[in-house]
């Protein structure tokens, strides 16, 4: 390998290692905020999608699949925030603000999933307002902390 | 009727190229985040693929040989190998994603997890490739893929603000909540999706399978200038549906179920059934295309007997390559990797492979030894060189944008 080849290989190794090394450092407040806002945004997307879904006439299996995707998305968002190291008081405030919203999102999507399992379409439709409400509050959190 | 069916190769190629599993989600995600601000990329990509697919189809019709075969002969085995490696890896990633896409479409109808459908889908696709005639295959899946026209109907039913669309489409740059990095990343991904290498290889090899000659140049051009713009129109309709439903709510799209929701909101259960049929046909068709393209490129590079116009026994190595491709795709998917993420990566790597694919086509299309008086005219060369510059810029920007934006997240 020539000297230019060694340079290219070295730069490629650094580029590959950079994310690994970055992951070893303690979480900064900005990093924490980014992660929390991303989780809240994903949960907001899932709950708003579920709200639009349950308010409309769709095929039962389709409803089940989309709600399962939404449940996975809000569950992942909640777990990600719960697993993050909290670097300081500002981050603690963010966590205390977002965790109740994410918990409400998990509950709302779970209730909608349970309602979809029954045959009563009216009960399923009734899940739309709480889903839209928690979706809106999560979106407000994202806009306030972006 | 025969003439109508004559354009199904172009329709199948374009539906595979423009509305496969990755494009379905990428177009919807782009509409949800940027509105119609990146519609110009789709238009740029449609013109680009028309320019190069026309060259590749003309090469096949006039020389009777697919473009990849001539690239190796004209530019030598080294350039051919670089071309082969770049396009084959992208094609394999795309094949895996398409098999996953078929499974995801079936999941929407059955409610059974897509991973259970992956081996079944791969087996059925392979049996179709093995048993069904090329023309039948392209007609069934090309025409069934047209079910995605339901997005155009749904868009009208949603009653969007056309004025807002016009404003967004004529605005260069991201909306307030996005930055230039993600805007650039999605622009590169959409452009690479439109210009995916396997499209030209499949199209020119398909022309040879259909035994195109000089007399079929009009058919070839109708295929290009009807099929690819139609694919582009479907892309724009998907983007516009998502822009109408999701952009105001700030929703991000990352599942196939979300892509279908605007149609369900607009047209109800019937529309939903049609759009899921369209997903199935488009991803199945794209899986056929990519499966065959994987076999075409390898067999043509090594000079093996290839294609569906010869008996499988006569093209055993070609069919073995296709079969191995499906086995690798299933193995990749059963690691539980997200099929949609696989296609997103394949689009980035596709951008890297674009120069290796399109420069040789431009060279061959100017060679009088192969094309005689049917070499490129001035307009084709001006457009070809312009697109090579765009392709080069996209290739250079792809990886830095991917790293800077975290895959556009």
Description of the molecule:
The complex is a heterodimer of chains A (146) and B (409). Chain A has a single domain (26-144), classed as A middle domain of Talin 1 (Up-down Bundle), CATH 1.20.1420. Chain A is built from 6 helices and no strands. Chain A has helices spanning 3-24, 29-54, 60-83, 89-117, 121-125, 128-145. In chain A, helix 3 (60-83) packs antiparallel against helix 4 (89-117). Helix content of chain B is 80%, strand content 0%. Chain B contains 17 helices and no strands. Chain B is globular, with a radius of gyration of 20 Å. At the A-B interface, helix 2, helix 3 and helix 6 of A face helix 5 and helix 13 of B.
> Largest beta sheet of chain B, briefly?
none
Reported CATH architecture of chain A: Up-down Bundle
Based on helices, strands and strand pairing, what is the structural class of chain B? mainly alpha
As residue ranges, the low-confidence spans of chain B are none
CATH class of chain A: Mainly Alpha
Number of domains of chain A: 1
DSSP strand tally of chain A? 0
Which two chains touch over the largest interface?
A: A-B, 25 and 27 residues
Q: What is the C-alpha radius of gyration of chain A, as a whole number of Å?
A: 20 Å
